[in-house]
Amino acid sequence: MLGFENHIGKVSISDNYLTQIVRHAVTDCFGVSDVCNVDAFHSAVSALTFGKAFKNKKGVVIRTDRNGCLSIDLHIKVSYGTNISAIADSIIHKVTFTVEEAVGIKVADVNVFIDDMVG
Fold first, then answer.
1. Which of 7, 53, 89, 104 is least surrounded by Cβ atoms within 10 Å, i.e. has the fewest?
2. How many other C-beta atoms are found inside a 10 Å radius of the C-beta of residue 98?
3. pTM of the full predicted structure?
């Protein structure tokens, strides 16, 4: 559960809701086939290295930093023949915009990992 306080009052956001917002934004991007599963090792290492990490939900790892900003790791499958650089840029912009608009929490960075390519 992620919580913050603003001029209106306290707001709590479930990890599942935030993960679903990110997954929906990613899968709507052109060239993205799906979100990949992340192995348990990666999620354990990211939790130890970067502090609190939300539960791994099929390819989306979300962490908070000391300033309350979000850091998002995405593991995706892309379609063969698409420009990977363009896909990554599109995903970064869309996820950042979608999360900041829907939740109101600043996104510090979005890391995109291309794990598979499907034909």
1. 7
2. 17
3. 0.78
